[in-house]
């Protein structure tokens, strides 16, 4: 009887010894392995989601991350989507001239302008200004966050190239003009035209369009309806540049 008990105890010990590596492996699977898989899947989603959404945005009106943030905080948002045909060509010309005069000629990123800004940063130590194309701004508005950072700027580059490869120039412009911020809670050309000038976006004059375009770099600090002296000068310069711009609008407005 004693011998049987000893054999039973020995066999149980051996069984426990055989199970312990399995248990250890299981613990490791639940620990490091599980987190690795989760991180990998999250990264995969982050990589694949923008291209998938961009394909959807070829036909579905999108909202910006800033708009989503305001919705999440239960803040007021005014955005009235309008097709490009219902937005004044004056605004298209003014925005391209003001924000990205090479819009029709680059593939989402103006590499020459970007290189110049990098050289300024390296040689003079100043913060880079400009070189942000309308496509890069669209990428930021759709998928990234506000504020200035080199991380965000670095993410804009591949996103802009991707967007330019999937969408037409007309569609990118249409999206941009419908999600750009033009005041506290005011998004898109139609809401901006109604808020600042009391008229639909299709009826904007060249002067009003120039004021809206030159308000884009500082939408919370510039009033298109009552522009400051500096803002008036910027819009007057924009009007002059539009008149001498030549064929830089063809990819959106045609010849």
UniProtKB/TrEMBL annotation:
Purpose of the protein: Peptidoglycan polymerase that catalyzes glycan chain elongation from lipid-linked precursors.
Alphabetized Pfam families for the sequence: Transgly
Pathways involved: Cell wall biogenesis; peptidoglycan biosynthesis
TM region(s), chain numbering: 38-60
Natural source organism: Roseibium algae
Keyword terms: Cell inner membrane, Cell membrane, Cell shape, Cell wall biogenesis/degradation, Glycosyltransferase, Membrane, Peptidoglycan synthesis, Transferase, Transmembrane, Transmembrane helix
Gene (UniProt): mtgA
Domain Glycosyl transferase family, residue spans: 76-227
Topology versus the membrane: Single-pass membrane protein
Molecular function GO labels: glycosyltransferase activity
Family that this chain belongs to: Belongs to the glycosyltransferase 51 family.
Annotated EC: 2.4.99.28
Name the UniProt record assigns to this protein: Biosynthetic peptidoglycan transglycosylase
Catalytic activity reported: [GlcNAc-(1->4)-Mur2Ac(oyl-L-Ala-gamma-D-Glu-L-Lys-D-Ala-D-Ala)](n)-di-trans,octa-cis-undecaprenyl diphosphate + beta-D-GlcNAc-(1->4)-Mur2Ac(oyl-L-Ala-gamma-D-Glu-L-Lys-D-Ala-D-Ala)-di-trans,octa-cis-undecaprenyl diphosphate = [GlcNAc-(1->4)-Mur2Ac(oyl-L-Ala-gamma-D-Glu-L-Lys-D-Ala-D-Ala)](n+1)-di-trans,octa-cis-undecaprenyl diphosphate + di-trans,octa-cis-undecaprenyl diphosphate + H(+)
Region (Disordered): 1-21
Lineage: Bacteria, Pseudomonadati, Pseudomonadota, Alphaproteobacteria, Hyphomicrobiales
Localization: Cell inner membrane
């Amino acid at each position: 009887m004693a011998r049987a008990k000893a054999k039973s105890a020995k066999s149980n010990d051996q069984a426990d010894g055989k199970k312990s590596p399995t248990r250890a492996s299981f613990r490791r699977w639940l620990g490091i392995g599980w987190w690795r898989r989760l991180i990998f899947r999250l990264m995969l989603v982050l990589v694949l989601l923008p291209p998938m959404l961009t394909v959807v945005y070829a036909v579905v009106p999108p909202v910006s991350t800033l708009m989503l943030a305001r919705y999440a905080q239960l803040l007021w948002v005014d955005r009235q989507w309008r097709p490009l045909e219902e937005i004044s060509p004056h605004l298209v010309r003014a925005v391209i001239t003001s924000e990205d005069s090479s819009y029709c000629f680059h593939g989402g990123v103006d590499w020459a302008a970007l290189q110049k800004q990098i050289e300024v940063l390296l040689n003079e130590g100043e913060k880079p200004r400009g070189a942000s194309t309308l496509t890069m701004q669209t990428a930021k508005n759709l998928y990234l966050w506000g504020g200035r950072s080199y991380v965000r700027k670095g993410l804009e580059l591949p996103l802009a190239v991707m967007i330019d490869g999937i969408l037409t120039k007309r569609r990118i412009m249409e999206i941009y003009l419908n999600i750009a911020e033009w005041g506290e809670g005011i998004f898109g050309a139609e809401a901006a035209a109604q808020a600042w000038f009391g008229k639909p976006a299709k009826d904007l004059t060249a002067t009003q369009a120039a004021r809206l375009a030159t308000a884009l770099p500082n939408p919370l600090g510039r009033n298109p309806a009552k522009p400051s002296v500096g803002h008036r000068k910027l819009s007057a310069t924009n009007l002059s540049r539009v008149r001498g711009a030549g064929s830089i609008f063809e990819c959106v407005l045609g010849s």
